[in-house]
Amino acid sequence: MIYQLGKKEKDVHLLLNSMGRKWELTFTTLVTFGGAFFASFPLFYSTSFGGAYWVWMLLLFSFVVQAVSYEFMHKKNNLLGSKTYKAFLFANGLLAPILIGAAVSTFFYGANFVVNKGNITDFGVISSWTTGWHGLEAVANPMNVVLGLAIFFLSRCLGSLYFINNIDDEGIRKNARKELFNNAIPFLIFFLWYLIALLFKSGYAYSVDPVTKVTVISIEPYKYLHNLLELPVLLVVLLIGVVLVLYGFIKSYLQPKFIRGIWSAGIGTVLVVLVVLLIAGFHHTAYYPSSDLQSSLTLTNSSSSLFTLKAMSIVSIFIVPVLAYIVYVWRVMDKK
To answer: What is the mean pLDDT of residues 1-13?
Structure first.
């Protein structure tokens, strides 16, 4: 979207500088996320990252070339030339949100893996992927692509709001408001399409046999709708998040003097995504369904030991100074 917002080379430099100084903060969040998953839910980590590795490798590669592009695009005598780095940024902006959406959607629509804990002596390989595509087959499910497109257009909307707030340039702000409108419409279409389909689809419930202590997975109609209705606090948080996102979009578009829409829309996005992830795993729900029903992962059968979880609950307190660090660095960067 950079070249739709920046009509002149000066504008493009403003946009690239606004984002390029801050990509490290995204990586900080990504590493924290990956480390927390590895420690708390090692079976999910080994199953998804070890099985669907083509998706994750493409994602990581797109993030790496993004970082390299920001650092080297405008350096004199760079090896590949600025056009190559521009192509890298385009590929990252296109692939990353769609792949993330497709990966997250497998929490509801399932993935092609089999878990056999009896294989732990066989070089420790518990999970195996049943297709040679290793995660790329997720894009063959239309609903996974729908969520990917929703995240793609959402990222463009949030990008527009961020530029409106961060860059004091009337030309860029005018173009950003236009792009906000152009991308908000398809975002709402794809998001509502996915959300309605999710609430009316069957989900994967689990129960623990009181005698054998074995987790039994079963199909339950309207499972995710039941999760929202039976956990009303999540429904309330979801509605608050949606209202905040719409408020940020509408007020930013209608009031040219309003530049803080990224705050309400950003916080609203966090709340909506949090609820979507929680209904995937809370209330006796298998959060990572398998093509082999009984191999599906739940919060109980894929978590670490009680000791590790207690340790992680203490370690998670350190997310507060990490967030404080991000806020501090962000403010320092924005002083100039």
So the answer is: 86
